[in-house]
Amino acid sequence: MPLPQTEMPGRLQAHFADRGIRMTEQRRAILRVMETATKHLDAAQLLRKAQKLDASVDRSTVYRTLRLLKRQGLIDELDLMHIHGEGHYYERKLNRDHIHMACLRCGKIMEFVSDIFEKLKGQVEKDCRFRIVVSRLEIGGYCAACRGAK
Amino acid sequence: MPLPQTEMPGRLQAHFADRGIRMTEQRRAILRVMETATKHLDAAQLLRKAQKLDASVDRSTVYRTLRLLKRQGLIDELDLMHIHGEGHYYERKLNRDHIHMACLRCGKIMEFVSDIFEKLKGQVEKDCRFRIVVSRLEIGGYCAACRGAK
DNA sequence: TTAAGTGCAAATATTTTGCTGTCAC
DNA sequence: GTGACAGCAAAATATTTGCACTTAA
Q: What gap in Å lies between CA A144 and CA B131, rounded to an integer?
């Protein structure tokens, strides 16, 4: 039975507890935002949303927590073709890796899960003798709606 | 007969001429550096190398020219897992798309051409009805040499 | 001739760091 | 109690912009 994409609130916090990583009010707020986010957030958006839960959260704590989450392999960092600005976007790493597509015209972000992608990663691991820790496939182009409209 | 990976010096300049894009001393220097680069360059490295050919080249001209090259689809922009700093790396877009792998231990960058990657892009175009303009697959992990050493 | 391109300096955007005080465990 | 974490302010890094001057076509 496949797990749903909206998944296990509290899992990030559980991971922290499991590994003996200290929990603070600020981290709790940031993790909750990441856990409940319905779209990809950049650092500034994450800061604003976290401050709604705990007004004391500082920008530097957001960046420090993002670094921690990355090191723990709990989130992925994306560029999304820099549709808005030069910063990065973040999302929880869920059970299935997926491809990101960004429409260069309307800015819509789409996700796509593919067995061929899994096969490709297997090929890289085998043919290049490379142990994959993190992978990121981002595609820019035109979505179905915008293809015609161009 | 497959085209070699080190390829056609002057092709970027030829493209500019074909499209009626103005050529300047500064652009000539920047294009030459991109054409002859043997590794991925960030904006600062590109600036330094271009200044050796034409000392007048300014940082802003480098960024403006990079933007132009991106819009023309002549170069790809990469993060290379931010192995050094938060900036971007650039490389000429050659005939065959390739995957980039960055070793998180030794920092080595590897490239890999795969038919499965081509097939995957075909799947995205077909199944998602998405017209791909640019794609970027970056992988972080451990190369063969570093796998043992860890 | 003139629209496009340039350098320069300053602005903006993004991320990191040093320090001192606070809090989770 | 103490080592890890926090806020704050300032620095570091990366990229963009306004403007007056220059140049390719």
A: 8
Total tally of structural domains belonging to chain A: 2
Which chain B residues touch A138 with a CB distance below 8 Å?
135-136
Regarding whether A61 and A47 lie in a shared domain, the answer is yes
- Domain range for residue B50? 1-90
For chain A, say whether B120 makes contact (Cβ under 8 Å).
yes
Q: Which of B97, B72, B77, B92 lies closest to B10 in space, CA to CA? A: B92
Identity at B135, one-letter amino acid code: S
Whether residue A87 contacts residue B79, with contact meaning beta carbons closer than 8 Å, is answered with: no
Closest CA to B57 of B65, B47, B43: B47
Question: Which residue from B121, B134, B139 is facing A124, i.e. has the nearest CB?
Answer: B139
B78/B37 Cα distance (integer angstroms): 15
Per-residue pLDDT of B3-33, as tens digits, reads: 444 445 579 999 999 999 999 999 999 999 9
Round and report the angstrom distance from CA (B85) to C1' (D5).
Answer: 24
Contact state of B81 with A124 under an 8 Å Cβ cutoff: no
CB contact under 8 A, A130 and B142: yes
Q: If you measure CA to CA, which chain A residue comes closest to B114?
A: A120
* Statement to judge: residues A50 and A124 lie in one domain: no
**Residues B1 and B50 both lie in one domain:** yes
Question: Per residue in A5-62, pLDDT tens?
Answer: 444 557 999 999 999 999 999 999 999 999 999 999 999 999 999 999 999 999 999 9
Covered bases, chain D (protein CB within 7 Å): 4-10, 13-18, 23-25
Residue B9 confidence (pLDDT): 58
Domain final residue pick, B49, B72, B90: B90
B79, B128: one domain: no
Residue A105 and residue A138 share a domain? yes
Is B71 near strand C, with its CB below 7 A from some atom of it?
no
Q: Do B5 and B60 fall into the same domain?
A: yes
For B23, the 3-state DSSP assignment is coil
- Which of residues 100 to 119 on B have a Cβ less than 7 angstroms from any strand D atom? none
